[in-house]
Write a structure and sequence with these properties.
With 220 residues, the protein is mainly alpha-helical. The chain is built from ten helices and four strands, in the order H-E-E-H-H-E-H-H-E-H-H-H-H-H.
Length: 220
Amino acid sequence: MYNLIKRLFDILISTIALLILLPLFIPIVILLKLSGEGYVFYFQRRIGFRNNYFDIWKFATMLKDSPNLGTGSITLRNDPRVTPMGGFLRKTKINELPQIINVLKGDMSIVGPRPLVDKTFSAYPESVRAVVYNSKPGITGIGSIIFRDEEFLISNSKLPPHEYYEKIIAPYKGDLEMWYQKNQSLLTDFKLIFLTAWVIVFPNSDLPYRFLEDLPIRDF
């Protein structure tokens, strides 16, 4: 019943959101077309429901050949591969909004574990990889909320970016996603939607730890 209600909720919210956001999308599309390298959307193969692949939609924020440049799948703060307009879209999370189309198609949900590429997915322990996508990946989720400062953390680490992600971030992010698997409910999803908006406005807030029960504590 939960999955059916969640799917109906996803369709309703994504349809309404798409209609409301169209006036925002149109100027963004025009500006992206006229700036950077002139492309609007970025499609990337991600791991989704039951570990099946799908193509995620995003507004283009980086150079086309970014996966083959610099730190590859990991983005740093002030990453030179990010276009000027892309920096604004990433900071405000507007670049994620085209994933509404993925929700309508059924690839994603509004709330769920973030869909990863193979390299970052493989950093999870095998026990996490086996179950993390038993629920559909989401536009937002507990991992996105707690690691809203991921680019900052990686950029300021003394370890190489990929090593820091694999040794420090991935294990804790896996714990967070296991928390979500154990606590899935419509109430949890509504809380995560609220917290997503909250941490955009108050990025240093510790409200997630006070608002959510038994959330694994981050000690770094």
